[in-house]
Amino acid sequence: MTDEDEGIRGDEGSLLLDDQLCFALYAAQRAVTAAYRPLLDGLGLTYPQYLALLVLWERGETTVKDLAAALRLDYGTVSPLLKRLEGAGLVRRERAAHDERSVLVACTGRGEELRERAARVPGALLAATGVGGGEVARLRGELWRLAERAGSAAGRAR
């Protein structure tokens, strides 16, 4: 290793791709999403559609605004996603009677039926990746803490 290499390598300030936390997260996210693909293909869902349905199965009828917040997405990203789910007959959208500016979204009977088939997905993913329950809990906790810290840092940078 040259002195020049030393200047770009190390725990802090490294410019090497494999030393980047963001790249490790990106690579892991892509790999995990790819591992979900064959499981979700059998359900006729994309990964974002699956996430939206998870929220609806957990919460029941909710506003599009609250769904977008739960998914940490903007309204403009969630609307086309819901349009495709509605076209597939899995969700319904309607204006709220108490506030016409608000749009409610809920699973249809078909969407609820899909829930039973989707119940096998989490276990199948863990089996496919070889990650155990304790490791999942630890990783999830660390990632949520990182997301919180990064969100706070982004807020301070504004």
Query: What is the topology, as strand order, of the major beta sheet?
Result: 1-3-2
Report the biggest beta sheet as strand number plus sense, adding barrel if it closes: 3 strands, antiparallel
Strand content: 5-15%
Overall number of strands: 3
Calculate the mean pLDDT score and round it. 92
Quaternary: single chain
Low-pLDDT residue spans = none
Output the radius of gyration: 20 Å
How far is the N terminus from the C terminus? 38 Å
The backbone outline, from C-alpha atoms, is globular
Number of DSSP helices? Answer: 8
Strand and helix order: HHHEHHEEHHH
> Structural class from helices and strands?
mainly alpha
Helix content, binned percent: 55-70%
Question: How is this fold's topology laid out?
Answer:
Elements: H1 3-8, H2 21-41, H3 47-59, E1 62-63, H4 64-71, H5 75-87, E2 91-95, E3 103-107, H6 109-118, H7 121-129, H8 133-157
Antiparallel strand pairs: 1-3, 2-3
Description:
By secondary structure, this protein is mainly alpha-helical. The chain is 66% helix and 8% strand. The chain contains eight helices and three strands; from the N terminus they run αααβααββααα. It has helices spanning 3-8, 21-41, 47-59, 64-71, 75-87, 109-118, 121-129, 133-157, and strands at 62-63, 91-95, 103-107. The protein has a three-stranded antiparallel beta sheet with strand order 1-3-2. Helix 2 (21-41) packs across helix 7 and helix 4 packs across helix 5 (75-87). The longest helix is centred in the C-terminal third of the chain and has 25 residues, at 133-157. It is globular. The two termini are 38 Å apart.
